[in-house]
Design a protein that fits this description.
The strands form three sheets. The protein has a six-stranded antiparallel beta sheet, covered by helices on one side. Strands 7-10 form a two-stranded antiparallel sheet. Strands 8-9 form a two-stranded antiparallel sheet. The termini are far apart. The protein is built from four helices and ten strands, in the order ββββαββααββββα. The chain is of the alpha+beta class.
């Protein structure tokens, strides 16, 4: 069957950019995640499509928060935002968050693959990935006053070159000022865990 294209709302240079859906790569309460390709540059991206009509207030807040945080961030170890826009197709309105595509998949998938093969990661590889995660968290905490709150293998993505990119900021918290950030950490109300 023919896949629908996702139209970007603003023109890029003289031509408008469209995205062709390649395949569905995730589905949840928030909506659907597709691998897509630009018909202008042939670069692959990922789009999270949130159906506004069927979305709970909480899921919509999480999607908006994720888009806002990704707009604020520019770091080699954090997933880069390409664009975010609303789109109307007939009566359905969606929020579309387009981010870079990490060909290496996520760390959760990689760990399962290693387990199936009866193998394990080399210690140097783990240290290399951990360092990059620490760089991303240092940037978020010190420069942006953002706490991720959902660090887990499935939210840590790998490029084809093996670099780590932290993603999925739907549960993150942005602090208005440094004092609020420090007070919250001192009171132990926020921690880097997916149990919150």
């Amino acid at each position: 069957s023919i896949l629908k294209t996702i139209k970007l709302q603003k023109p890029i240079s003289d031509e408008e950019e469209y995205y062709q859906k390649i395949k569905l790569i995730g589905k949840g309460a928030f909506g659907e995640v597709y691998l897509i390709m630009s018909t202008l540059t042939y670069i692959k991206y990922v789009v999270k499509i949130v159906k506004i009509k069927n979305c709970t207030n909480e899921n919509m807040k999480n999607a908006h928060r994720e888009a806002i945080i990704l707009m604020k961030c520019n770091h080699p170890n954090i997933i880069l935002l390409k664009d975010v826009f609303r789109q109307r197709l007939g009566v359905e309105v969606t929020l579309n968050i387009i981010t870079e595509y990490c060909e290496g998949g996520d760390l959760g998938q990689k760990a399962l693959e290693q387990k199936k093969m009866g193998s394990h990661f080399e210690e140097t590889q783990l240290i290399y990935w951990l360092m990059q995660i620490c760089f991303a968290l240092k940037y978020l905490h010190e420069e942006k006053k953002i706490v991720h709150r959902d660090i887990k293998p499935s939210n840590i993505f790998l490029t084809k070159d093996g670099y780590v990119k932290l993603g999925d900021f739907g549960l993150s918290k942005i602090f208005d000022n440094t004092k609020e950030y420090i007070d919250t950490l001192k009171n132990n109300n926020i921690s880097e865990t997916n149990k919150i």
